[in-house]
Amino acid sequence: xxxxxxxxILLTLIGxxxxxxxxxxxxxxxxxxxxELRTSVATGIGVTLVIFFIxxxxxxGYAWLINWPERFKATRRKQKxxxxxxxxxxxxxxxxxxxxxxxxxxALEAQNNLxxxxxxxxxxxxxxxxDSNHRLAEEKYKALIALPAPTSKQxxxxxxxxxxxxxxxxxxxxxxxxxxxxxxxxxxxxxxxKPVWALRGLFQIEAxxxxxxxxxxxxxxxVARGGIExxxxxxxxxxxxxAEGQALALQLTENENAKIRAQGLKLVQRAIIxxxxxxPALVLASQLxxxxxxxxxxxxIIKRIEQLWKRNPHPDLVPAYLALQPxxxxxxxxxxxxxxxxxxxxxxxxxxxxxxxxxxARRWSMARVALREEAETPTRRVCRLMADLEIxxxxxxxxxxxxxxxxxxxxxxxCWIGPTGEATSWQAVCPETGQIDAFKWGYPGQMMSxxxxxxxLIG
Length: 459
Fold this sequence. Notes:
- By secondary structure, the chain is mainly α.
- Among the domains are: 86-147 and 156-209, Tetratricopeptide repeat domain (Serine Threonine Protein Phosphatase 5, Tetratricopeptide repeat, Alpha Horseshoe); 417-453, no CATH class.
- The protein has helices at residues 2-22, 41-66, 68-97, 100-113, 118-130, 134-146, 157-171, 175-188, 196-208, 212-224, 230-254, 258-274, 279-289, 297-311, 317-323, 330-341, 348-360, 364-371, 380-394, 397-409, 444-447; strands at 27-32, 35-40, 415-418, 421-423, 440-442.
- The strands form 2 sheets. It has a 3-stranded antiparallel β-sheet.
- Strand 1 and strand 2 form a beta hairpin.
- It starts with a helix and ends in a 12-residue tail after the last helix.
- It is found in: Membrane.
- Residues 26-130 form the HemY N-terminal domain.
- Pfam families: HemY_N.
C-alpha cells in the first residue's frame, strides 16, 4: 500500500515541477573557454537527466562485470546445496526403505556437495550400521566429531558423533567405552546446557551397574534440564531407593546387621513417602521392619498396607502384612487376613487371599464359600487352591488331579510383566534389557505391549 502511494506522490511532484518550469520560460547558458552553449531550461534538465541515466547504466554494468565471479560462485554454491539436500532426502528415504546401497550412494553424494554439513556423515554412519559395517560407521562418527562446531546450538556434529559412538558401544556391551563417550559429551557441553540424552544414558549405566546414589543425583540433574517430569521423577527416585534397599536386604540374608537393616528401612520409608502406593516398597519395608518390632515402623507399614488394600488389593501385600505380625498360628493368620480383606471384601484378590488362609487353617467351608464364584471360570491360582481344598478336606486325589489338569489350560493370573515376559517378582532393572522400572503388574496378554514403556537405555 505504501509503495503505490509513494509513486503517486512522486509523479504528482514531477508534474507540478514540470508545469512550474513551463510557466517560467528562460534560457540556460553554459560558457566554456572559447564556447557558449545556450538552451532552454527544460532541454537542459532533460539532457542532464539523460547523462545521469547513461552514467548510471555504465556504473551498473561495470559493477555487474566486476562481481561476476562472486555471483558465479554463489550460484554454484546454491546448486551444490540443492543437490546435497536432495541427496540427503534420498538417503533418508532409502534408509527408511532398508535400501542400504542406495542410502550409502546418496549419503556420499550429499557429503561431496555439503562437505561442512554433519548430516550426510550421520546418514552414512546409519547406513553403515544397517549394513553391519561397524568399522565404517565408527569412522563416520569420528569424522562428525572432527567437524568444527556450528554457530548455532542445534545439530552439533560433535554431539551427534559422540551419541553414535555411545550407541554402538552400548549395543556391543562395552559399557566402559559408552561411559567414556558420555563423559566426553558432557565435558564438551556448557555448564547449564548438558544434553538430556547424555544424562539419560549415564543414568541408565549407573543404575544398571547398581550405583544407586549416583543414579539419584542424575535424576535431579535431569529434572533441572527438563528431561524428566517432576511427577515421574518422584516415582523414579522411589524405584532407585527400593533397589538400594533390596541390595542391603540381600546382604542381611548372609549376615544379620542391625545398622544395615536400619539403613535399608530408612531408604524404603523415603520411597514410600515419594510413592505411597508403590507395592514393592511396602513389601520390602515389611521384610526389613519385621525384625524391628520395638519401634513404630511396623505399625505404620501395617496401616499403609490396609489403606492400600482398600484401593488396590495385591497378592504380594498378604505375606508382607503377615510378616509384620509373626509368631501366629494358621488360625491367627486367618484372622489377620480376614481383617485385611474386610477392607475390600468383594475384590477378587480378597477372596483368593481369604481362601488360601482358610485352607491353611483347615476351615474348609470358609474356603469353599470364598472360591464359589471364582471356581465357575477359574484361573490357574484358583485351580491350584481347589486342588489343595479337595486333598485337604476330602483326601480326593482324583478330583485334585482334575483341578491340576485344568490349571494347565486355565486363564492366566495377574503377575509381574517385564520387557521379556513374566517374572516371579518385581525388579528395579530388567537384567536382559537394562530398562528401569519396566516391570508392571497385569495380565500377560494385555501387558506385553506396555511393559516396554520403562526407561530404556539410550540408543
